[in-house]
TrEMBL record:
GO terms for cellular component: excinuclease repair complex
Originating species: marine sediment metagenome
SUPFAM superfamilies with a match to the protein in the record: RuvA domain 2-like
Residue intervals of the UvrC family homology region profile domain: 32-129
Name of this chain's protein: UvrC family homology region profile domain-containing protein
Record GO biological process: DNA damage response
Length: 252
């Protein structure tokens, strides 16, 4: 984890100037044979544990910089079991269906089509996403995937991967985009798991039903926060009493 954080900090430093970002965008356009500069890039990733607590992420870079206000998270709804390909397909379908339903004249971030879609993965992930995008009707949006092991870039029009030098500013920017999608998906996955763990712990406490459980989750959000909260604080939560708050503290 520390090594990954170190690499991310190095990429941020190397891409810190407008000149470096411009060079990175120009290189991506050239090497991936894009029709225009990738001023808006969207990165996608999936996070799950053997198909459970499955989520997807969409992160956005504009002019080479993260645009957190345009990030989106997805709970996987239609896929059972560990099938990352199908999960990626669900996420991109939902994203681009919303785009097609949006009016481009309104300030709706869903309506903006990217200059490049980047998938975390190899040729298989890329092909599954391309099929989903064609099904939705956005097959013309430029799409690529970036595989972690050898940092290979896959594009639809080439069988062999594109290999850029590790020092390449274009590769470093694509790595940042991919890693940010991974971070955002993993963070959402972990947040849901914590809530579920907390909810399971509350299920064993007499007198704490679904309504009180939801109220506690909304009020405190994590097991650690509940453990650290005083009884008086728990008791002021909607539907709670001092007696029930005492039970919660005893069980946790």
């Amino acid at each position: 984890k520390n090594a990954q954080q170190g690499m991310e900090q190095l990429r941020v430093k190397q891409l810190a100037t407008p000149t470096a970002l411009a060079a990175a965008l120009a290189e991506i356009k050239r090497e991936l044979h894009l029709p225009r500069l990738p001023s808006r890039m969207e990165g996608y990733d999936i996070s799950n544990i053997q198909g459970t607590v499955a989520v997807g992420s969409m992160v956005v870079f504009e002019e080479g910089k993260p645009k957190p206000s345009h990030y989106r998270r997805f709970r996987i709804k239609t896929v059972s079991g560990a099938n990352d390909y199908a999960m990626l397909q669900e996420v991109v379908k939902r994203r681009f269906k919303r785009s097609l339903k949006s009016d481009a004249s309104t300030p709706n971030t869903w309506a903006i089509l990217p200059d490049l879609v980047l998938i975390d993965g190899g040729k298989g992930q890329l092909n599954s996403v391309l099929a989903a995008m064609r099904e939705v009707g956005v097959g013309s949006v430029p799409t690529a995937s970036l595989a972690k092991e050898n940092e290979e870039i896959f594009v639809p029009q080439k069988r062999a991967p594109i290999i850029l030098p590790r020092s390449s500013p274009g590769l470093q920017l694509l790595q940042r985009l991919r890693d940010e999608a991974h971070r955002f998906a993993l963070g959402y996955h972990q947040k849901i798991r914590k809530r579920q763990t907390f909810a399971s712990a509350l299920d064993t406490i007499p007198g704490i039903g679904p309504k009180r459980k939801r109220a506690l989750l909304k009020q405190f959000g994590s097991v650690q926060a509940i453990r650290e909260a005083p009884i008086e604080g728990l008791a002021t939560t909607r539907g709670m009493s001092k007696h029930l708050a005492q039970k919660v503290k005893e069980h946790l």
